[in-house]
Design a protein that fits this description.
The protein has 13 helices and eight strands. It is of the alpha/beta class. The chain has an eight-stranded mixed β-sheet with strand order 3-2-1-4-7-6-8-5, sandwiched between helices.
């Protein structure tokens, strides 16, 4: 009788022939863990399927979807086929160190109430300090929900969760094109203990292509939607944190993204977010100078900024 796999790994891919050899190899190369690897080809038109078929490994199952359904639907399809007690998600441009799954599964099994184990990661190829290795805090220490609500706690490939819990919370929300992983992790974390492995075990390879979070305004508003929906479904978290802190964690996040867009002169995104903040009454005194022009026509807003910049240069 064949032994059931311990962990199922779901790799969604769409036109990822260049990246799949590294990600699939890193999954197949995991040490000391019973593996069930599911690759979901989401309507690729390149040689992704040929690359996957070329591995010829008994652990690897390939699911072919003729039409593109989106990454959340592809992950959910893989989740529906998972045979392991635990599940992990690895995107085509991600990679694991050889002992990643064994370490995360070991951490999960050491805590009876644990629902997810997470680790540190590194964004390889990002400029500046953003490419430095990062180990997140222990979220089960004081302030767990304040920390988890601030932002997505870990990337999709830096965690292993109990399969039954991921299914119980509904997997990924297929309506969302941003923050779908954040919603999943919040819902899973509300079901039990989260366990940290304080070591960098997951790698994300930045390649400058069509990667997530390009649409700044949409990403920020999706993030807010996920936060507010979670708080509505879990009012005990709202009561624990209080209204002032909740507004700071939710609308405060949008404010930060709005000003990042503004200083990068992405006025389209900044204006969308500024207008929403005005409507929600989330303003500081110094914000008026920057936010109120967002109510003007875009052409007028641009002319005003151009005049201001010329004046500064002359001064």
């Amino acid at each position: 009788m064949l032994q059931a796999p311990v962990v199922s790994v779901v790799i969604p891919c769409h036109n990822a022939e260049v990246f799949l050899p590294r990600s699939v190899s890193s999954a197949l190369g995991q040490m000391n863990v019973g593996l069930d690897l599911i690759a979901v080809d989401d309507g690729s038109t390149d040689e992704s399927l040929a690359v996957l078929d070329g591995f010829g490994d008994a652990c690897l199952r390939v699911i072919r979807q003729g039409c593109r359904t989106g990454v959340s639907a592809a992950r959910n399809r893989g989740l529906s086929e998972a045979r392991g007690r635990y599940v992990a998600f690895l995107d085509a441009d991600d990679e694991w160190k050889p002992d990643t799954l064994a370490r995360l599964v070991g951490a999960l099994e050491s805590e009876p109430d644990a629902v997810v184990a997470y680790c540190g990661w590194q964004n390889v190829g990002l400029p500046g300090g953003r490419g430095e290795p990062y180990v997140p805090p222990d979220y089960e220490e004081e302030g767990k929900w304040e920390r988890l609500l601030r932002s997505c706690p870990w990337p999709i490939h830096a965690a292993v969760a109990r399969t039954d819990v991921v299914r119980a919370v509904g997997g990924f929300d297929e309506r969302l094109t941003h923050a779908e992983d954040y919603k999943l992790w919040l819902n899973v974390a509300a079901r039990g203990t989260v366990v940290r492995v304080a070591e960098v075990l997951a790698l994300y390879h930045f390649h400058g292509g069509n990667q997530a979070s390009r649409d700044v305004a949409k990403a920020a508003l999706s993030h807010l939607e996920v936060q507010e929906e979670f708080l509505k479904e879990n009012p005990w978290v709202w009561k624990q944190l209080g209204r002032k802190k909740v507004r700071k964690l939710t609308l405060g996040y949008v404010r930060r993204r709005a000003f990042e867009a503004y200083w990068a002169r992405d006025l389209i995104a900044a204006r969308v977010l500024f207008r929403m903040l005005i409507l929600r009454g989330f303003l500081k005194n110094k914000d008026f100078l920057y936010m109120l022009p967002a109510l003007l026509p875009l052409s007028v807003h641009k002319m005003g900024l151009a005049c201001l910049e010329r004046t500064r240069r002359k001064g």
